[in-house]
Amino acid sequence: MRAYFKKGYDSRYVRSLFKFIDFIFRLPENMERKLSDEIGEIEEDLKMTYITSWERIAKKDGRKEGRLEGRLAGRQEGRQEGRQEGRQEGKLEVAIQLYMNGVDLDLIVKSTGIAKETIEKAVATTTH
Q1: CA distance 98 to 111
Q2: Which of 41, 39, 36, 44 is closest to 14 using CA atoms?
Q3: How many Å separate Cα 113 from the centre of its chain?
């Protein structure tokens, strides 16, 4: 990079060239970080911006953070869904017991909000 600037190449040309090389040639992460550090030094020396590898590293770090946040949100969402399913199962168990104890099915549907067919099907599978 320094050599290109010493030879007088335009910064847009050098940036484009390095973006192309960066696109074609992938380095192992440790070497990529080292190269990024070296490019950072060159940038400071030459006041030229080349950020492709830095962007890639930042994007990778961002993905890791995003996955972690996603997992945490997913766990919370899963807990909420589990609680909701548990409530529904509890309502269904109560509805089955009420029905089996002779409570009017329409009253059970009205009280629990569970569909008549769901209660009838659950009672049929419970009694067999």
Answers
A1: 11
A2: 39
A3: 34
